[in-house]
């Protein structure tokens, strides 16, 4: 059985750098703009090109591109490069056309997606301009995802996972550089954030180009919609895209509903979501990203016993990593949120609201991560329809929950619905996958999940107690807050590991050794 932990380690290191920089980006954003009129407009505007991101970028493109490219690779580098070149040319054509249409029709799109903003003068207008500025981001991020797919097929994970760091670096530097420029000219400095998104998106692609060349990619001026490999990609892509279209409709509905809530609701949710994506990207997405090309290669070689063993191992690993981190972060949600955001124009009331959303988001991290990893097996077997149907069901549950709860618990309804709908998605995929995995493994997997909760809660409680003691007796300066999170977090992780050994989780030692070995 192939050991995916080496790839997971490389992806996690790169992602850790990227996600930490992402949190710094959000911290700078909070410092400069706080939570209010302009930040709501920016977040709504950024969501619009992101509605298409999963289709043209990471999720659908990777799910369809990597399994086919892995099979074509066995025919030789020339064939692999021809398929990859055809794919990038088609992306340039289709995503480029969509960007042009998005810029032209931005005012109309905004009036639909964020129509609740119409109650506040000039908010729709600002959102429309920001949307027009940021729409080309979609093309850059699609190219970056294509490059990531090629490199992942070559079992190269570090540079693709590090690439978003360039996005975050330029998303930080650009608004800081342009802030005074826009203020001096009487313009809203939030425009600097939009320009930073554009520059950062381009750099996320550019950093991968040298590695592509090193791995033997050579571009061909080849565009053929009838190419057999492209047709295979589309056979996988369309069901994934349809399933994602349902989730994108869900995001659109969420945006519409959130725009009807109190001002700052969208900003609070966005800040919480950014924190949640740190552990999700480090562990949940990392395992799924590495597992997809590995499983695809094993399926192409018809090594079905290795497929089964690798899949079960990846799910146990993702639970080991995400259950612990999500619960520890939930316990430490207040000091983490305060450290990252509470300064400048970001007030304590914003910290409290963001913390509440964060807790509801992070408890669903294991479910979101499992969806990604279970879907990888379906995609490896060229089955994109089952994840699509599961996505439909989860989206329906999410919308119903949001409509039912938004007037009861306000903005908190949205992260809670995200968590519960992800659980529904996992359940459907687990039930349906029995025909692929013949051995009984679901009950043992649930037992592992249940066992992990106990040491995780113990670790989170210890971490919270240490954080509280430090803030009470040492103070709340920035340096103290950083030290407090580091100390309480590290002790919590050690407590979790010790708790795993006490409750008899035998794989704990194995996972730690595999993750840290060279």
What does it look like?
The protein is mainly α. It has a domain at 37-263. 82% of the residues lie in helices and 0% in strands. It is built from 22 helices and no strands. Helix 6 crosses helix 7, helix 13 (265-300) runs parallel beside helix 17 and helix 20 runs antiparallel to helix 21 (478-503). The mean pLDDT is 81.
Q: How would you describe this structure in keywords?
A:
globular, single chain, 82% helix, 518 residues, mainly alpha
Helix fraction?
over 70%
Question: Regions with pLDDT < 50 over 5+ consecutive residues?
Answer: none
How far is the first residue's CA from the last residue's CA?
18 Å
Mean pLDDT: 81
Shape: globular
Q: What Rg do the Cα atoms give?
A: 22 Å
Strand content: under 5%
N-to-C SSE series? Answer: HHHHHHHHHHHHHHHHHHHHHH
How many beta-strand elements? 0
Characterize the biggest β-sheet: none
Number of helices: 22
Structural class, judged by helices and strands? mainly alpha
